[in-house]
Amino acid sequence: NFLLTQPHSVSESPGKTVTISCTRSSGNIASTYVQWYQQRPGGSPTIVIYGHNQRPSGVPDRFSGSIDSSSNSASLTISGLKSDDEADYYCQSYHTTNVVFGGGTKLTVL
Amino acid sequence: QVQLQQWGTGLLKPSETLSRTCAVYGGSFSAYYWSWIRQSPGKGLEWIGEINHSGSANYNPSLESRVTISVDTSKNQFSLKLNSVTAADTAVYYCVRDGRSYAFDVWGQGTLVTVSS
User: Is B41's Cβ below 8 Å from some Cβ in A?
Assistant: First the structure.
């Protein structure tokens, strides 16, 4: 199996743009879809990106996802940061019928 | 609007069996896979396994020897059993819908299950 590695924490100011990375340890990042979830304190996770770069309805276009085969990583970018974006973010992918989550990144909006 | 509601025992002793059931309200039950995911206190997310309406199940290899997920299509419910629990199984347990290609698009409210002697 493989691991998904995320930075433990990131911080940025309101109105700025932040990018959270998710590096796959083995196998091609593009071979299976990467999803991203937001989890606010005390709440259940909610999906913000699926299929590498697709936004579910209701998710603002300030959220975007991408993959980079050269670094074998996925990224979640949040632009125009708001205090409401402060949360934990998890990347997730899969291999055949096993699901792998990244360790999560705590986003602080200063 | 799809809603997931779970119930089961919230406090267990080591070596007991954890049992939880999740009911699906609204939407199509047969069109999706349904998963259990857990989160240890202060930690990340761990996928436990999934099942579809036909009873086809897949499990996390790290838990497979202790896990059984079953389905009751007459009630639009699916259930989790995890045997021989230890303190390491203390976690918030979520029942979740797999929307497409393991994109978990509907989450129930998590429930803390504590294993303590």
Answer: no
Give per-residue pLDDT as tens, A45-97. 999 999 999 999 999 999 999 999 999 999 999 999 999 999 999 999 999 98
CB contact under 8 A, A90 and B58: no
- Rounded to whole angstroms, how far apart are CA atoms B48 and B104? 13
**Beta-ladder partners of A106:** A9, A88
Of A32, A98, A101, the CB nearest to B61: A98
- State how far residue B117 is from chain A, nearest Cα, in angstroms: 26
DSSP annotation string for A50-95: BTTTBPPTTS-TTEEEEEETTTTEEEEEE-S--GGG-EEEEEEEEE
CB atoms B44 and A32 under 8 Å:
no
Closest Cβ–Cβ partner in A44, A46, A99 for B102: A99
Reported as a single tens digit per residue, the pLDDT across B8-47 is 999 999 999 999 999 999 999 999 999 999 999 888 999 9
Between CA B48 and CA B37 the distance in angstroms is 5
